[in-house]
Amino acid sequence: MSVILDNLPALLIAVPLFGAFLTPLFGRFLPKVRTPWAIFAVLASAAVAITTAIRVLISGPIVYVFGAGASAPAVLDSAGIPIRIIFTIDAFGAFMLLSAAIVSVAVMLYLAASQKRRSGKSAFYTLYLLLTAGIFGMVSTGDLFNFFVFLEINSLAAAALVSYHRKGGIAVEGAIKYAVVNTIGGLMVLAGIGLLYSQYDTLNMALIASQIAPNPVTITALVLFLAALAMKAGSVPFHFATPDAYSVAPSGVTALMIVASQAGLYGIFRILFTVYNGVFNTVTVGWVVIILGVLSMVIGVTMALPQKDVKRLLAYHAVSQTGYMLLGVGVALCVLHDAAALSAYGTTAMEGGLFHIFNHAMYKGLLFLAVGAVIYRTGVWSINKMGGLGHNMKWTMIFFLIGALAIAGIPPFNGFASKLMIYESTFAFNPVLAIIAMVVSILTLASFMKVFHSLFLGPKQPEYAEVKEAPKPMIAGMIILTVFVVVLGIFPDLFVNAVISPAADALLNSGTYLSAVLGGGL
Amino acid sequence: MMAIPLIAVAILIGIAFAILLIKRNMIKMVMALGILEGAVNLFLVSLGYREGGVAPIFVSAPDTAMVLPTVQALTLTNIVIGVATTAMILAFIMVIWKKYGTVNADKMRRLKK
Amino acid sequence: MIGLLSTGYGFWNPIVWLVVIAAALIVSFIILKAGRKDYSKDTEQVKPYLSGNDEPSASDTHVRGGNLYYGFTRALKGYYDKLIPLHTGILNDYIAWFLIGLVIIFVVVILI
User: Fold this and answer.
1) Which of B106, B107, B110 is the best substitution to test chain C (most C C-beta atoms within 10 A)?
2) Are C91 and B26 inside 8 Å of each other by CB?
3) Has residue A522 got a pLDDT over 60?
4) Closest residue in chain B to residue C99, using alpha carbons only
5) CATH architecture entry for B3-50+66-100
6) A152 to chain B: nearest residue by CA?
7) Does residue A166 register a pLDDT over 80?
């Protein structure tokens, strides 16, 4: 038992990869146990991730050195050269692990039903587990190059999954755009890593952070990281491929891709707050992040309003919600060196932005699953052709309504709690930003009234008379996410105190991260 | 002499992005991605180059002072990733060619608005 | 107190909110119960009265999603006419936007 607990960070990658590459074997020789095996593998990797996260939240950051004993120094190898491969999981990484684990389990249950009558299940589940491994790796690595490798695993697996279904090549069109754009982003990240390596001769995040100084090279690297990872996260003006990919991907996969793109946000925040630990001009970069956020919010929601394809509409809302996270964290970045403002509202803004990441993963996942269930039963994407489905799909309707109210920030669901934290703290920073955020929230509500009305309300339509309720595994997946949407809405303080505050602290005080890795100096 | 590889990197990145912006043929865009990847690889390798350095092969090194081959390892990894990416995008282009009858990015826009 | 989320300037307590909503629901249930007793389902009563005309079919009476918010997009026509054509769907333009964003961020961060 203690062997497992001591090696949790390695299992975090090993379990999903092992599950992934055994799936085709099962598919070849024992097709009956393939889906149960995939479910088991996802459950096992989620269990590892949640256990790791809980251990981190209870006993502080975990530093895991691959190929070395527990007492070996984390940075230098036996010859005194800083080439260790390490995983560093602090409270922020633990928080991302939690959200990825929960969504991956819910989506896997959903996929077990939605893929039942599809072909090519072996490769599908393999790619799904690879995507999970990519997300887990991105949020737990302590090494910039490993971050790039996991980013590429994440992008490749996601692009392959996007292309999986939808006849007529339209899914492949979305996938090719996503793949090309993310490849360029990945190469820009690698160029940034090269620039940092040229200055500090190391790839270890903590070791770079302990020496970093602002100069043209490091600032260029910062800009490359910021733009490329903002593209992964789907922020305006780098968002164009995001709705293309989300709208054609299998619905369950889109729900996990939300988390995959949030791993890009993790990268931005980790690099800004930990690797650069505030040595640059935080006010300028903070405002850049805020403006990216405001643009994402406004353009995302206004593009969502006239959409006819229901999944494309949801995808634009994903862009819009990403803006809230960037806004909250950008405000915190702006006041990073102003201790009074930081304690007055900066920390709350940070907590609001991070809380919104978790909430968005839950309710947007729920919305995509509910809409996916409707599409699964009707085979129709256009909201102009749907109507009256509430008569046939009562549970799906209830889950969709809960998700829609949560994304619009209606109490008592979780979206309201995080949005309130963002509104109040940004109002203290700059009232205009808070007003924009509220207007965007109102437009979100308006847009979801439209979707809810045109999907579920109205008289029973003759063409959908035979439509049945979604299969039970899909409902089970939705229930998991609904529980989090409702419980986090009713008890936001418990979650904020237990998970969000430590995560925000971990970002704001990079010293904890550095001392966990470097110990008492090199 | 350190500047020559960096100038080459800048030129290659410029060529790659010029093709990515101007050429509408998807195959040519994949080639441009290859050039971009090559540029980044060249950049990484040129960072690790040491004038008069000794290759880190223990049996043939005169003493223990050798070049640390980190960036070479990064470059190898990136080449492998690049192969995977290129193969996947080319496979996508084949499907697009079958379904749309074109490999032109201009015509590949059923997903818009 | 459980459920009390302090935001630095104010607080939010979903439990109190739920109690208020529950009270409102009880009041509306009482009002509902005080209504007419002679309503019965599955009779002629539930059919809409349209001056003796036949009830139109279900697909004709449902307002389709695309028709909602016509007024909103119409009022912001100038904005949408500029915004929607930017989403061309051409991959080269996506890359161009990435470069434009990258250069703008670069100039802003270096100069200011």
Assistant:
1) B106
2) yes
3) no
4) B17
5) Orthogonal Bundle (1.10)
6) B81
7) no
| Nearest-CA distance C30 → chain A (Å) | 24
Looking only at the bridges linking them, the beta strands covering C5-6 and A62-65 are unpaired
pLDDT per position as a tens digit, A28-82: 999 899 999 999 999 999 999 999 999 999 988 988 888 776 666 777 766 667 7
The mean per-residue pLDDT over the stretch C58-65 comes to 76
Which single residue is written with the structure tokens 């992008």?
A: A155
CB contact residues (below 8 A), chain C span 47-66, against chain A: 57-59, 61-66
Contact B110, A171 (CB under 8 A): no
Chain A CB contacts of B113 under 8 Å are 306-307
- Residues of chain A with pLDDT > 90, as a percent, come to 72
Domain range for C20: 1-34
Q: Is B47 exposed, middle or buried (0-12, 13-18, 19+ CB in 10 A)?
A: buried
Cβ–Cβ gap B78/A190 under 8 Å: yes
Domain count of the fold of chain A: 1
Residue A163 falls within a domain, yes or no?
A: no
Residue owning tokens 């903590």: A206
Instruction: Please list, in sequence order, all residues whose beta carbon lies within 8 angstroms of the beta carbon of residue A39, skipping any fewer than 6 positions away.
Output: A108, A109, A112
Mean pLDDT for the stretch of residues A489-506:
92
Residue range A292-350, pLDDT digits in tens:
999 999 999 999 988 889 999 999 999 999 999 999 999 999 999 988 988 889 999 99
Q: End-to-end CA distance of chain B, in Å?
A: 50
- Say if A244 falls within a structural domain: no
Q: Domain range spanning residue A300?
A: 281-490
A38: distance to nearest CA of chain B, Å? 24
Q: Over range A229-238, report the average pLDDT.
A: 92
